[in-house]
Design brief:
Elements lengths: L1 H28 L8 E3 L2 E2 L5 H17 L2 E5 L2 E5 L8 E2 L1 H12 L4 H9 L6 E3 L3 E2 L2 H15 L7 E5 L2 E5 L4 E4 L1 H13 L7 E2 L2 E4 L8 H4 L2 E6 L4 E6 L2 E7 L2 E2 L8 E4 L2 E4 L3 E2 L13 E2 L9 E8 L2 E6 L8 E3 L3 E4 H10 L5 E4 L1
Helix pairs in contact: 1-4, 2-3, 5-6
């Protein structure tokens, strides 16, 4: 009886050791097989061996590195190649090791049961990817240089017969931090493939088209071809005057100026020029009969100015030595309306 029990115990132990050996052998055979439901960087590698997963991931991520990332703002497009420009590199070995380790969680019994029942592990191993931060900053900086602009105030577009109101433009500033983050997400695979948009901040100009009248409370425009001086208040024409301008060789200078000084009965500091004759280099007091600068003076550039004249017959012609002549009553009238710093355009 005792011998029979001993044999039975030995038989049971043999079966137990045989089963344990088989269980161990089975588990060892699964040591580099990835479990069901395991994904790496969003790629399903279920039931693959480590070498199979490595080959699959190398191919798939290689395609990702070759695929350009397109950044778009309006009609402008910018291209970033992950491998060539951003130095993107995937650590496939580390990702596969992580997938295998996740699959081997638990003990020999739980792993075997999970494998035999095809129970899903349901793990997603993040992509192990590196890229050059310096290259990414350089790429975003190039986009900033191309898109960023300061706001442009509305302005006046001068022309001889009048002016146009030129619309201002909003300033644009690229949200560089967000763009870098969006590109990093594309490079690391945490964002789905597709275009990357550029977020910008807009800055309105200080002066809009509607506010131009405030910028130009007074304005003088001189039309040299038609010998006309036009005076504007808040960009509305107030009056047009007939004037005389510089004779041949003494042209009244074209361009944009401002009224720099105003004088009643101006003194004439005679240029030391041959055309001045005996008066060359002299100082003729205001109001003197031989002083051609009558009544008022509105200076604007290098000795040139607007002044009254006794020679009203010269109005409507090129007759002065560069100044702008007006009749005495009209220059007095204009003088009262126009402050220093009034813009002046001679076209």
């Amino acid at each position: 009886m005792r011998n029979r029990s001993f044999v039975l115990i030995c038989a049971l132990l043999g079966l137990l050791f045989t089963g344990a050996g088989g269980l161990y052998a089975y588990d060892k055979g699964q040591k580099d097989v990835i479990g069901q439901g395991v994904r790496v960087g969003g790629i399903d590698v279920s039931a693959m061996t480590a070498s199979e997963a490595r080959a699959e991931l190398t191919t798939r991520f290689g395609r990702e590195q070759a695929r350009d990332i397109i950044v778009r703002k309006g009609k402008k497009r910018y291209t970033l190649n992950p491998a060539r420009q951003a130095g993107s590199r995937f650590d496939v070995d580390a990702m596969v090791d992580g997938a295998v380790a996740e699959s081997r969680e638990g003990n020999i019994f739980s792993r075997t049961v999970r494998s035999l029942r095809d129970t899903k592990v349901n793990a997603d191993i993040p992509a192990e990817v590196t890229y050059s931060e310096v290259a990414l900053v350089r790429f975003v900086s190039a986009i900033e240089r191309d898109l960023n602009r300061k706001p442009e105030d509305a302005s006046i577009g001068f022309k001889p017969a009048g002016f146009d109101r030129v619309e201002g433009r909003d300033g644009i500033t690229v949200n560089a931090a967000k763009l870098r983050a969006d590109l990093a997400a594309k490079l690391t695979g945490t964002a789905a493939p597709g275009l990357v948009g550029v977020t910008v901040k807009k800055t309105e100009p200080k002066i809009t088209r509607e506010e131009l009248a405030q910028k130009y409370p007074t304005l003088i425009m001189i039309d040299r071809e038609n010998f006309k001086l036009r005076y504007y208040r808040a960009l509305k024409l107030q009056k047009t005057y007939t004037i005389a301008l510089g004779a041949a060789g003494f042209d009244t200078p074209a361009g944009e100026y401002t009224i720099t000084d105003k004088t009643v009965d101006p003194t004439w500091y005679v240029p030391n020029k041959e055309w001045a004759g005996d008066l060359a280099g002299k100082v003729i007091p205001g109001g003197a009969e031989n002083n051609p600068l009558k009544a008022r003076w509105l200076g604007f550039y290098n000795g040139a100015g607007i002044h009254g004249t006794a020679d009203e017959a010269s109005l409507g012609s090129n007759a002065s030595h560069g100044c702008v002549r007006m009749s005495v009553p009209e220059v007095k009238e204009l003088y009262e309306e126009v402050p220093v710093n009034t813009p002046l355009y001679i076209g």
